[in-house]
Design brief:
Number of strands: 5
Number of helices: 3
Strand content: 15-25%
CATH class of one domain: Alpha Beta
Distance between the termini: 70 Å
CATH architecture of one domain: 2-Layer Sandwich
Strand order of the largest sheet: 3-2-1-4-5
Structural class: alpha/beta
Radius of gyration: 30 Å
Shape: elongated
CATH topology of one domain: Nucleotidyltransferase, domain 5
């Protein structure tokens, strides 16, 4: 026997208001209990100083690293994995421009090892100042 013949079946309904209330309470709890201080146990007083605008740009040694590993120091092209040639080219560039900054222009798809090889060769050549060139994303 079917006793529910005349009755319509009620569809279940999801009420989102209590769920949102619970999430807001959890969010407030996390915001109150989180410490926004980076080093809560160490209190560091950083030194202050006056910085003047740079009047001279330091000399730069441009090193390019392609995605396939080919490298170029200033105008001399090097094969992929030629660490000794890279070291010699950086030493020559350091002799021509003492105290220069090494600017590494690495392709976004270049291997990490090729960039590290350039950094190691610069260290071995006595060049201690390194920087990486980047470009802004197109709008």
């Amino acid at each position: 026997m079917n006793f529910r013949r005349g009755r319509q079946r009620e569809e279940p309904e999801i009420n989102l208001i209590p769920l949102i209330d619970v999430l807001l309470v959890i969010l407030i709890f996390l915001m109150v209990t989180t410490s926004y201080q980076r080093y809560s146990e160490m209190h560091i007083n950083l030194p202050t100083g006056q910085a003047d605008a740079m009047t001279q740009r330091p000399q730069a040694i441009m090193v390019a690293v392609a995605a396939n590993g080919l490298m170029q120091v200033e105008q001399s092209k090097l094969a992929s994995g030629d660490n000794q040639g890279l070291l010699q080219a950086l030493r020559r560039a350091n002799g021509a421009k003492p105290g220069a900054v090494v600017v590494i222009n690495a392709d976004g798809r270049a291997t990490h090892q090729s960039v590290v090889s350039v950094m190691e060769a610069a260290r071995a050549a006595g060049l201690t100042q390194l920087t990486f060139a980047t470009q802004a994303e197109p709008r």
